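= Protein in question =
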Amino acid sequence: MNPIGIMVDSLRLGVRDGLKKAKELGADGVQIYAVSGEMDPANLSSGARKELKDYIASLGLEISALCGDLGGHGFQDASANAEKIEKSKRILDLAVELGTKVVTTHIGVVPEQTNDPIYETMHRACEELGVYAKSLDAYFAIETGPETAAHLKSFLDSLSTNGVSVNFDPANMVMVTGDDPVQGIITLKDYIVHTHVKDGVRLRQVDPREVYGSLGYKPMSHEQIAEAATSGPYYRELALGEGHVDFARYFQTLRDIGYKGYLTIEREVGEQPEKDIASAIAFIRKYQS
């Protein structure tokens, strides 16, 4: 059985209380944002890192991944990339120290044309991060959603290592690109190192750049995405089983490709996150019995 994780930040309790609640809810592991505040690598001394790792272990949990999503325009803006790449490397270092090999992120929408200057800028950034991640035996994992699985695979195939891989989120695909998550697993099977379990529905077609940001568009923020998923005109995030992700086929296809990693619950909307996440764990376990 795949282990079940919880995005600690989805519980909206802070890190320590969120960790305790994740254990109470029956999770095997947790994913934690590590971009600002107490989890910013710059704010964690070596002693604090060891203490946090020991505390998580004392709860009987492990870290499925860190989230290193720096928002904005991802890695599309060459003038901002040096700072973002440096911070991403420090988040990768932190991940390895805390006992996980995965840092998930959004990199921005990958342009269709490989000779687009934005494509070339993103490629250079991901090449550098992929080589660095590989040197740590770790992965910088791009979250699915902003582009089709086929186009993302083409981008990943063009990099020199698999140090940049995939955090597979089926709901993002359903809600934004209209891509089929089951076929997406098959397409991206060589790159999937972490997954999110989330559901949703597409209400009407939307340009992914309106959702995930792009140069010339609003920068991406998770607050805006959550607001759009609650009341926007294009898509809705829904409780597991209420949207258009075919979870019976989805989980079976993950098994078929031999995926052994985490199924991590992310809940970006709703007024009762603890209740929703408890229901999500029960939902997943129905498919594991």
Remarks:
- The first strand starts at residue 4 and ends at 7.
- Residues 225 and 232 are 9 Å apart (CA to CA).
- The mean pLDDT is 96.
- Residues 78-98 form the longest helix (21 residues).
